Structure of Cytochrome P450 55A3:
Amino acid sequence: MSMYNSPRAYSSRLRSCLQTLSVARASYSTTAAMTAPPSFPFARPHAWDPPAEYARLRATNPVSRVQLWDGSTPWLVVKHKDVINVLTDNRLSKERSRPGFPEMSAGGKEAAKNKPTFVDMDPPQHMQQRSMVESLFDVDAIAKLRPHIQRTVDSLLDAMVKQEKPVDFIDKFSLPVPSYIIYGILGVPFEDLEFLTQQNAIRSNGSATATEASTANKTLLDYIGKLVDQRGESPKEDLISKLVTEQVKPGHIERSDAVQIAFLMLVAGNATMVSMINLGVVTLLQYPEQLAKLKANPSLSSAFVSELCRYHTGSAMATRRVAKVDIELAGHAIKAGEGIIAATQSASRDEDVFSDPDVFDIARFLPKEEGGRGEDGYKAMGYGWGEHRCVAETLARTELEVVFATLFQRLPNLKLAIPFEDIKWSPPRKDIGITELHVTW
Ligand code: HEM
């Protein structure tokens, strides 16, 4: 016998069941939504403030899961000590060809198929290739280069002050400074600098179309290829000649590897350098009492640059790995093939390592006897950590030190040509940067 003694009773029961089911489904999807990992990268809430999620996760959930654009759910590590563990653990790999490696975009996934350079290699290949260029970036080599960096900064400022005010600071200063210097190290002839700097800007400034960016990329690669051939015939004292003479000719690497390594050195740090120069100017203008100290004592530039690179961790998406075997990290079981993102931007604000981490303090890394906090600038994560820590850190720091020891001496009245609120920032889910900066003095 039917449970329902009339069609009406049946349809009422059915409606009630469907209602129960829909409440259950709604509650299931709420629970699922509650447990689904948050989407990553997190967004900066405002201007240069880091994403608020980092502080919350440091306090409540330092090793967690996040969801990327492709639905994958790598681990996110936000505490300083765990970031160091991730970046020094050889059971974790930087090889982007390994399944599970966390890619941040469709373009990145595509690029991961290319033949890698040392930035994407594991030991022992990583150090074999990195050591081919390292000597040109060590402390002695950069100390010798310092007068050239100073001349480059001075002459770009000379040219900038001749322009009608306000000027496009990126175009006239923060882009050409690092470009001209790295081109000099590579051995690019002076007369080609302007053209190549333009091409580099097109490939990396984000406002070009995909076709324009890839054409500019190809132009740069073709140009470097020709330079590799020329230096093969008549070597000079530069990075490309060194690669050709010491590596390509004896057969350690192929011509195409030399082109790729030179290209890596050309593009790896350029956009970040531009960002850090822009951010340095804007940060000083926002903290006039700290700017006054720097103007009174330009040798504070070194301490300022360390704090700048801690406070604005300008390259925060590169420190990614994938587990080669099962490991345990801070009590969590991470399986082979799972991705890990080490959030250096969060580690640089870790309250267990830096006092008042959200305060910008030019004296943070000065010794206590000089009125500073006596903290250790090497612990700031701006340049990464471990074997892949930025190979050009000394160069980058020296360029920034020279820039900030010079800029406000030469132009003490330098100021923004627009209000701070109108500055154009990089998209909130991308690395911190400024896309347009007009200044006057
Ligand atoms: C302020 C400027 C710079 C910042 C903040 C910066 C930051 C970083 C960071 C965070 C890494 C580590 C990536 C990782 O672990 O995978 C890195 C690596 C690297 N950087 Fe820089 N960088 C800067 C300037 C430069 C410059 C000017 C160059 C080139 C001349 C450069 C070339 C490289 C290269 C080739 C690597 C890969 C090193 C390796 O994998 O062994 N960087 N950089």
Remarks:
- The two ends are 93 Å apart (CA to CA).
